[in-house]
Specification:
193 residues, mainly beta, Pnp Oxidase, Chain A, 38% strand, globular, binds flavin mononucleotide
């Protein structure tokens, strides 16, 4: 495959679109679009979010020690994008977008009600990366839309309909269809025992 070198940049890497929900010391809720997000450990369950140190969201997490990461379904693309264009230092983004939150029982972190998947977190560690802070949260609870489960408990991904962000070309996309089964489809290439 012929390749073009793009230099040491962050251009083009598919990323999840999420809303990080936080609150300040006075309980005022803020929502921020974040795509530099990923699960980084299963044991203990941990998620990491990379935040510029100037974000209101970063200040809120440092103040309260809690936050939530909320999956953005395609239906919320415009509202979530707005949460990535202006700081909570300037506007109330819940009022701006009409998105609502509810306080999580265990941590008190705000959870976005309109999101089908809320990851409730408690801050455990941060790593300084230049202007950014890799903020790691212990996953205290996952709140998943009831509608995603069938009678046998199987999860149907279409209900989550996650928005995908393509950095560099600055496009939001939806997922295509199912391609193959993970942790299984590759077995056919493994040496036979
Ligand atoms: C698609 C998209 C993804 C973004 N991802 C991040 C991110 O991962 N980390 C970050 O610090 N800022 C990210 N931003 C920028 C913040 O969302 C933006 O600066 C926001 O206004 C900060 O809000 P706050 O000051 O209320 O926390 C992203 C913006 C967009 C539109």
């Amino acid at each position: 495959m012929l390749k073009r070198q793009l230099g040491p940049c962050v251009t083009f890497f598919p990323q999840p679109a999420t809303l990080v929900a936080t609150q300040d010391d006075d309980g005022k809720v803020n929502l921020m679009m974040a795509s530099w997000v990923g699960i980084v450990s299963k044991t203990p369950p941990t998620i990491a979010v990379s935040l510029h140190h100037g974000r209101k969201t970063y200040a809120n997490i440092m103040a309260t020690g809690t936050f939530s990461v909320n999956l953005v379904p395609t239906s919320l693309a415009v509202a979530a994008d707005a949460c990535g264009l202006i700081s909570g230092q300037e506007v109330d983004k819940c009022q701006l977008t009409g998105l609502t939150t509810v306080a999580a029982e265990r941590t008190g972190a705000p959870l976005v009600e309109d999101s089908p998947l809320n990851v409730e977190c408690r801050l455990v560690r941060e790593v300084e990366l230049g202007d950014y802070r890799l903020v790691m949260g212990e996953i205290v609870e996952i709140h998943a839309a009831e509608a995603a489960f069938d009678a046998t408990g199987k999860i149907h991904a279409e209900v989550f309909d996650p928005l995908v962000y393509l950095g560099g070309i600055r496009e939001y996309r939806s997922l295509g269809g199912r391609v193959a089964e993970a942790y299984k489809s590759g077995l056919e290439l493994l040496p036979k025992k």
